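Table S5 (text form). Sequence records supplied for joint modeling of the two-component complex.
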Amino acid sequence: MQESIQYKIFKVFNVSILLLIIFLTLYPFLNVVAQSFSSEAAISSGEVNLFPKGFNIDTYKTVVADSMFWINYKNTVVYTVVGTAISMVMTTMFAYALSKRRLVGRKALTVFAVFTMFFNGGLIPNYVLINSLGMGNTMWAIVIPGAISIYNMLIMKSFFENMPEELEEAAAIDGLSQYGILLKIVLPLSKAVMATMILFYAVAHWNSWFPAFLYLDQKEMFPVTIYLRNMIAGATGTAAAGATSADNLTQLAANIKSVTMVLTILPILTIYPFVQKHFVNGVMLGSIK
Amino acid sequence: MATGFKHMFRTFGVVGLSAAIMVGCNSGGSDSASKETAEPSSKGAMESYSVGDTFKASEPIDLSIMYSDAPHYPIKEDWLLWKEIEERTNVKLDPTVIPTSDYEQKRSLLISSGDAPLVIPKTYPGQESAFVSSGAILPVSDYVDKMPHFMDKVKKWGLEGDLDTLRQEDGKFYVLPGMHEAVWPDYTLAVRTDLFEKHDIALPTTWDEFYESMKELKKHYPDVTPFSDRYTFNSTLNFAAPSFGTKAGWGFVNGLSYVPESDEFVYAAATPEYKELLTYFNKLVKEGLLDKESFTQDDDTAVQKFVTGKSFAIATNSQEIVSYRSKMDETIGEGKYSISKITVPGGPKGHLMAGSRLENGVMLSSAVKDHENFEAILQFIDWLYYSDEGQEFAKWGVEGVTYTKEDGVRKLADDVNYNGLNPAGTTDLRVDNGFSGGVFAYGGTTDLLHSMMAEEEIAFQNAMKETKTVVAPEPPIPYNEMDKEQVTLISTPLKDYVDSNTLKFILGSRDLSEFDAFVKELEGKRMNDYVEISNKAYQEYKKTQK
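The corresponding structure-token record, covering 835 residues in total, follows.
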């Protein structure tokens, strides 16, 4: 097929603009990776761009040797796995029930759920609630309160609604119970949306730090995001400026910060490309009826 | 400090609601509160406890404490610090660990939700006001008579005036501040002394001389802008302002400046002194001596310029200059440069230095009042934070274990290192033992403060002490609930406006001849109302003190 001149010109522009965008988004990330392998001197004189300068892996060794880093890392993995599992079970149940038109009070339940997308009790009441439920300082405070993301639930609900009803009716005639239908018919047919949801939830849990900061008081229970945040924001932040207490002002080396960042994003980074194709599919699901 | 205040206002919003419900209106609370003060429970307390005594509880006490966990010396359970505190005082501390990065936020959350630990350290003066109206914080000034070391230090060092700055509307104070024997200046300019020597330029002692020396350097290095500053210039404005007779930068805070002659407050940014300060720095910018980016660049960029020889002067403190040096050893090469802190230059008003002898300190949750060990806890706090023994312990550790003392000179033990004081040491005083950390170690005598400083820093401290006169602390302006809200509403936009115009005037994008117009604009933003409310609040406060 012969391409017109205009189309060729368009393609050149298109590709170069896209390349530029790729570079712009990729650069900060590559810069952090390069910094993590560079010597502190090279970083402080601003010589590190895309490639490491004054190659060093000592910092990696130091950070990896910090037991607290690994304890927190393990916590993040546990919270992510448990949190995602709980979220998936709860969200699927809720979404499936709501997708059935014959459900009594369906509308009220939907409104009830959507309401929480816009309004909530506020920070302090939430905190008091969680603590009086006895969940303070336990893993449950991290994984339960946010178990159902209404946005995800709605995506799932519209996916289920699009499933041919005849399929389920046929299964019912063949003697499957309602639970059987969900487990044996609906779920196996929903792999795309499930993969997307798992990814959504897992990434959210991996990156989250605020609930942990709010509800946990013990270092041994913190996820690695708090470790990282304290490292980066703690030494430079807030009260330190202008305070006379010199103690606050010791900054951690840029090198250590970047090493921790790289180690923290590594797992998500390795998994993401493989699940990514479901991602786009999944979000589009149910967008056309 | 500046951000601290901003935060205070933010917290106020959060606490405001609950506060309104809980207390409604607490004006005139001073007499009702004193009636409520029942005889404090003295279980576990020492019967006779006075200056010089070591506190030891007569029965074991568990004490909850908020702990700000700094990333460069993460908390460890097996620190000698915990063990030794328990052994000496019979008090077992139970820390609620909060990462330093979000300490303030969680602190207000815990206090507002009523779940706060009894002891709340690392509270900067001013931050406590947000919690006063909720009644969640103990008005500790009612109980300082149980704290002999605290009282002793206040009397010995003449800190009554400083403490007055903490008083709230009811005339009480709610935070036990860290106290220094003398004002401790830390921030100043660092300059490339090797270049000063090379071109035979004397180190500047006044701002005019500083201008001349920068001009001289510019002559030799026409491509270089010799002064490129960090902290978005707020630090330099802060330490320059007193000698111009005003307030600016970090020290601007609420913008009110006390004039002793007329016994009233004025708005600092509207004074001729402020204009003079702006004019001076504007001159530096105009002649290419002060980098225009000083006001916007981040600290790393500014430091980068300095350590790579692209600028010759930058703001610093005692810690940062050490880090400049280690960077310059790599970038310029050891021995090929020399830098030093200079004594803060004097200005038109002479050699003045502002500063508080108070720093961050301890709040107590009001729940502590009903604790059966209330008195013992007060004695414990008094010992740990205010006795000479407690302060030395928090800073240096255990004599004979982490340090030795001969003829009053303290020295780290052979195997202990701290900040490079004893490079041969294998364990770190702070990281491995928990001493000299920000939660417990601050304040104290000048002798104790200097005991861990490098010689260069001590020389700077002494030079500052010799040349500078300390500006007296300003009286407090305790607003009532209504006024507090008003004042926040007026002063925040006012300060924003001052900040942006300060920048414009110095950079020259607004001509200084428009300064009068600027003052008019401030008046348009209700500056006069603000000053009036503040002066009224101050006068009312003065009445309560008589």
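Note: The longest helix of chain A spans residues 67-99.
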